[in-house]
Every structure is written in C-alpha cells, then in structure tokens.
Design goal:
194 residues; alpha+beta; nine-stranded mixed beta sheet; two-stranded antiparallel sheet; 13 strands
C-alpha cells in the first residue's frame, strides 16, 4: 500500500512539475536551486530541475559578460550593479573540461549538430549529422564561442544537468538557454573558470 502511495505522489509531482514548467517562469528562490536528481521509472525518467535565479554577484566585469564556473556547475550572466542571473549547467567530462576567455561569435536557434571526429571515434553509433529539433543534443539554442568547437547550448537530456557529461561544451536546460540566448549579444565576453 505504501509503495502505491509513493508511486502516486511521484506521478502527481511529475505532472504538476510538467504543467507548472509550461506556465510559470523558471525562477526560484536560492533554497530551491541545487543539483539535479533523477531516477528511472517504467514510465520514463523523473528528474529535478536547477532553476535559474537572480543572485548577488559583485564583479568589475561589464554587464552582459558570461562567467562559467565549472566546479560549481553554474553559469552567471552579469546584469551589472553587483547582480547576475545564475543558471545550472552540465560541463565537460573528465579530460574534456577547459578554461579560458572567449567571445560569442554566433548564435543559432535549433542548431544542426555534426559530431567531431573525436566524438565519432568514442561513440561510433552516432549519426554523422543531425538537423536541429527536439531530439538534437544541442537543444533549442546555441552560443558559439570564438573560433573553437565549443558552445553554450541546450540539451535533450536535462536530467544530466549538474554533471560532467559533455565533450567540453556547456549545457543548460532548453528553457534556460532560450533565456540566456535572448539576453546575450554577439561579441559578449565568456570567461570559463575551473
């Protein structure tokens, strides 16, 4: 009986989360923000969300700068006046993380994806090209960094946010990358810190 009750709570919570996600902004108090949790059920994966939020962030950098803190698994979009929008992210897996300074060279909505030769060597069953769309690993939007192969982009696997799972790119939920995309201008500075 307790198992049935727990299962009912999980289903209702996930349905409320789904409907709430479609009708309310993805902003939450600091106490709600945290790492994603997930578990597999017979009906699919149930997972938590890292909500974006406005936070204190004293900095001498100008508004519009993006600062990625890979160890915290957070991205900060500076608003100026000591404030920033903080987003939960996934980062590069062991051996694929990086740090440095770049700029946003291009922006794309529902971008196509062509895996690099290195990715295809590690995952030979991947397609050699995917058109943009809901099943595409780059998600809803992408910010291309300088002349590198790295991007800040959405994801079709939001339950992996908070982890180190990519080949060096910075992943956000699709809702969050759309928000960041709309705020970010071409030429914006991006600082990636470990």
């Amino acid at each position: 009986m307790r198992l049935v009750g727990l299962f009912a709570i999980i289903i209702v919570s996930s349905l409320l989360g789904t409907f709430g996600a479609n009708s309310a902004p993805k902003v939450a108090p600091a106490s709600v923000s945290g790492q994603v949790w997930s578990f597999q059920t017979p009906l699919g994966i149930i997972y938590g969300i890292i909500f974006h939020e406005e936070v204190d962030y004293p900095s001498t950098r100008p508004a519009g700068t993006i600062i990625v803190n890979t160890s915290q698994r957070r991205l900060y979009y500076l608003l100026g006046g000591g404030r920033a929008i903080r987003y939960g992210i996934a980062v590069g897996m062991e051996g694929y993380g990086w740090s440095g300074v770049s700029t946003v060279a291009a922006k794309r909505e529902w971008p196509d994806w062509t895996p690099t030769p290195d990715i295809l060597r590690r995952f030979p069953n991947l397609p050699h090209h995917m058109v943009g769309g809901r099943d595409n690993p780059l998600g809803a939007r992408a910010l291309y960094l300088g002349d590198t192969l790295y991007r800040i982009h959405g994801t079709n696997e939001p339950w992996k946010l908070g982890g180190d799972v990519s080949s060096g790119c910075i992943r956000l939920s699709n809702d969050d990358i759309i928000d960041l995309y709309n705020r970010t201008r071409i030429g914006a500075t991006v600082i990636v810190q470990k």
